[in-house]
């Protein structure tokens, strides 16, 4: 090795050391989790606006989850390697020990066998129908769930809640339910008139409303569904107890210092962020 090559390597090492020291001083939480991850953590996104979606022009992923992931990585020093999966594939991947975390999941007893759920956001499910849908009577106009002829398209891997599940089973027995892998596909089928209704999260309404106009214009119907909690999901199978606690503590710190509220506000507005956040 030449002396010049050795000096270059020493200089690079010193610069890296200086960066690490500066980062630790600027962000004390990193010092407490040094060596926490030991490997890149596998993070799964799903297309769930405004949590995660592709920006129309650049096709770059963005949303609440992208910002939360960046902040978790910054504070813990962990590298998060993202991938994109449908919701049903996400849950299968948790079971198969192929992913470490997701930033949007609804807890069920079955899922809690393999995941630790850290709630941070409240939401309610609503129905989406075409704006020109002609109801059979006034009651159905207010709530298509009362019309036995309503066709519904459902996204696989979603758990909507007891009220919704009972209605889906009822319509399924009538042969009026179809299934798709992505929520956006369900919305498109309704927009082009292939189904009467689909179920989406209330926080997604603005996104879909802007993208379906004219003959495909949509209407939102609030049927008074109960609130659900959206959670960060940590794998019980691939993450150690120490890693789970450190990530949970980091999320709690983000809530306490207002970072999480600011992230939500960037995507849904400050007023709605205040209403939706789970402290």
Automatic annotation (TrEMBL):
Residues 1-31 form the signal peptide. SMART domains: PBPb (SM00062). The keyword Disulfide bond does not apply. Keywords: Signal. Residues 40-271 form the Solute-binding protein family 3/N-terminal domain. Gene3D superfamilies: Periplasmic binding protein-like II. This is Polar amino acid transport system substrate-binding protein. It comes from Niveibacterium umoris.
């Amino acid at each position: 090795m030449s002396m010049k090559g050795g000096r270059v390597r020493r200089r690079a090492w010193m610069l890296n050391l200086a960066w690490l020291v500066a980062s630790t001083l600027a962000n004390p939480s990193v010092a407490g989790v040094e060596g926490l991850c030991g490997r890149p953590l596998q993070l799964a996104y799903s297309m769930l606006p405004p949590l995660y979606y592709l920006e129309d022009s650049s096709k770059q992923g963005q949303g609440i989850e992208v910002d939360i992931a960046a902040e978790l990585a910054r504070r813990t020093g962990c590298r998060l390697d993202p991938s994109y999966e449908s919701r049903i594939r996400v849950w299968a991947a948790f079971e198969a020990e192929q992913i470490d975390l997701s930033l949007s999941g609804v807890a069920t007893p079955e899922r809690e066998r393999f995941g630790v759920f850290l709630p941070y956001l409240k939401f309610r499910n609503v129905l989406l129908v075409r704006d020109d849908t002609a109801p059979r009577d006034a009651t159905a106009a207010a709530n298509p769930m009362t019309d036995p002829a309503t066709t519904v398209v459902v996204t696989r891997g979603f758990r909507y809640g007891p009220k919704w599940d009972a209605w889906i089973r009822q319509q399924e027995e009538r042969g009026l339910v179809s299934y798709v892998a992505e929520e956006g596909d369900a919305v498109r089928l309704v927009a082009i008139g292939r189904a009467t209704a689909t179920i989406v999260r209330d926080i997604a309404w603005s996104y879909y409303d802007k993208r379906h106009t004219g003959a495909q214009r949509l209407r939102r119907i609030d049927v008074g569904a109960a609130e659900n909690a959206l959670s960060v999901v940590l794998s019980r199978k691939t993450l150690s107890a120490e890693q789970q606690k450190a990530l949970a503590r980091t999320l709690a710190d983000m809530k306490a210092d207002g970072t999480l509220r600011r992230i939500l506000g960037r995507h849904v507005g400050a007023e709605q962020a205040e209403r939706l956040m789970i402290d």
